[in-house]
Every structure is written in C-alpha cells, then in structure tokens.
Amino acid sequence: MAKEFLHDWQKKSLEHEKSYKQFLAKADKKKVLKILPEIHEEAVNAVNCLNCAACCKNYSPRFKPPDIKRISKYLHMKEGVFIEKYLKIDEEGDFVVISKPCPFLGADNYCSIYDMRPSDCARFPYTDEDVLIKRTKLTLKNVTFCPIVYFVLEKLIVAGGGKGG
C-alpha cells in the first residue's frame, strides 16, 4: 500500500503545493502534534532513506558550533581545519558544506559521520516535531525532495488536522 501511495510522489507534491500551503496555514497545532508521531513512524517505515539521500545530495544542514566541535574531534581535526576544508558561510550566516553532495555521503548513500552528524541532519525531515507546521516555508521546500515529508503531509490532510476538521 505504501508503495502505491508513494508512486509519483514528486509529481503529486508539486500538484498539491497549494493544498499543503492552505493546510499548514490553518492546521490545528494541537491536533496535528497529537497524530504526528504515528504518521511519522508510518512514513519512516515506508521510505528507505538510503534509496534516496536527496537531502544529502542537494542541500546542506547548518553546522552549529557544537556540531563543528563534535565532528572535528571525531575526525581528529582542529576545528579551524575542519571549517576550512568542509564549510563555508551561507547568506544567512550559517556554516554549511562547501560542496554538493555532502562530502560525508558515500556512494552507497551512507553517511561516514552518521553517529556524529549535525543536529539538523539528526532531526531531518522534522516530521516528528512542530517545525513541520511552524516553519511552513521549510516544510514546503522539503516536500519537493523528501518522500517522508510528502507521506506525512498527505496523511495529515486525510486525517483532518485542520481547524475544526
């Protein structure tokens, strides 16, 4: 069933963009947060991230100071050397990877620093937390490349997570 549900998800996510915007604008936060854990769990069980890795191939997480400290220590590098080798500052003033795909992504879609990965990576795709409805712009971007976000939004809309729905 999940396989059929996810068939042509990218095309459908573009077609449903307006309904996602409307849903996120009107969503009953309490209702959504109550049903979100179950839908998130269903989504992560339906989608194998190792088959996709679009997030790691096309985007960069923010590397916050604790991430830089932890990862550089793990890689036995000085923080400054780690920053110089792998990171740049983006237009929002955040440290992000210099190159795409992420330099820590292997050909097999496994992350070479998975246990030490940045907190943004560990939290992605934010489908088990209030970021999903609080940061509408981010969610609308993520749904275009992440089948888990698509799955969760579609299920939330069907479950009626809107106001009075």
Descriptive terms for the model:
165 residues, 2 domains, 11 helices, 2 strands
Describe this structure in words.
It is a single chain. Strand 1 and strand 2 form a beta hairpin. The two termini are 25 Å apart. Helix content is 56%, strand content 4%. Helix 4 (29-46) crosses helix 11 and helix 6 packs across helix 7 (79-86). It is built from eleven helices and two strands, in the order H-H-H-H-H-H-H-E-E-H-H-H-H. Strands 1-2 form a two-stranded antiparallel ribbon. The protein has two domains: 7-51 and 125-159, no CATH class; 62-123, no CATH class. It is elongated and about 50 Å long. The chain has 165 residues and is mostly helical.
Could you provide a short overview of the structure?
This protein is mainly α and 165 residues long.
**Tally of separate helices:** 11
Uncertain segments: none
Structural class call reads mainly alpha
Whole-number tally of structural domains = 2
Strand count: 2
Please describe the biggest sheet, giving its number of strands, its sense, and whether it closes into a barrel: 2 strands, antiparallel
Percent of sequence in beta strands: under 5%
Series of secondary-structure elements, N-terminal to C-terminal: HHHHHHHEEHHHH
Gyration radius, rounded: 17 Å
First-to-last CA distance = 25 Å
**What is the global morphology?**
elongated
Can you give the mean pLDDT? 92
Strand order of the largest sheet: 1-2
Fraction in helix: 55-70%
